[in-house]
Predict the structure.
Amino acid sequence: MMYQRYGLTSLQELLGGLLVYRNLRPLDARLPGLAHLRERCALRPGAIPRKAEPGFACVVAEMLSSARCLDSPGARIRRLLYLGDTRMNDGTAFENLCVAGQWPGWAFIGQDDPGQSALVKVADRLYVANRWSALPEFLQFLKTKGFPLDAETALVVDVDKTLVGARGRNDAVIDAARVEAVERTVERLLGQRFDATAFRQAYNELNQPAYHSFTEDNQDYLAYVCLVLGSGLFSARALAQEARSGEMRFVDWLARVETKREQLAVRGLLAVHDEIRERIREGDPTPFKAFRHNEYLCTIARFGDVGDAAVEEILARRICMTEEVARAIEVAREAGVLVFGLSDKPDEASMPNDDQARTGLLPLHRLMAVRVGELQ
């Protein structure tokens, strides 16, 4: 597949303030956030629902309705479009949103798969393509279905690995930033005990779908496990065997580590263990804050331009905007569609803390990125 660059843009330029990170606090302060919608959506105190959960859809549906009222008081959302990159996670989020808002809808699920011929499958209101360049065809497809793009339509755009770092094209750079952040965090906490080779072996092994029943597909949990394994308190091989067999849940692992408080104290890890354990008890899905702050730094270092570098080098070194998705957003906005972005990144991995902000560091949505699309 051949790609070319199409200039620079930012999430702020494409989405304005209509963007929410995992903590479900909209950038546009006029919109209700999770704190205001918790009771209406019957969510338990402290819990932050995940993207594929019905509670998440309830919160976002309320945000969409409120956002529509901001600039079009007389308009009402009557249909939903969704752009994502995973059939399971995004497909489920799309279905839940349709139910929560009582809207008919269509979803485009894309990726680039250069090893296969271009292919589109349509089923259950999902338009699944192995080329991001199929997006214009999807918009034409909607016309044949009598599905208009107008002020009564909401377009929800998954940010991570859809609008930013397209799956199959540029997603490896996002993953590299996260891995670097985990390694940097673990190394700082372990000091001289840190073994880079052992860390990578443990991380690469446990960061697979076969272990999701243990890690709950939560990078904070995985980072914490790698930290404890790196301290030498437990055998990585033995844990992998238990986790793969389904005999070990993360809550069980946390309880097992709790029995090693004296050893944790000797290794200087008791404070971070207690902090993470307490945040998990409170329902925080991103309890390893030190890791997430490092992820922010490692991620922003991969935004921006690379001068006159070839597009292949840009895709390998920088987090890029997906030209086809950006163009679809611009077409939709011009037609009066409400466009709203969802990012699964927690706020701590997306925005500078107070000290970082004072040095001039910007949140992810204000950083410029190269627009890269398939060569036409």
Summary: The chain has a mean pLDDT of 95. Residues 171-287 form one domain.
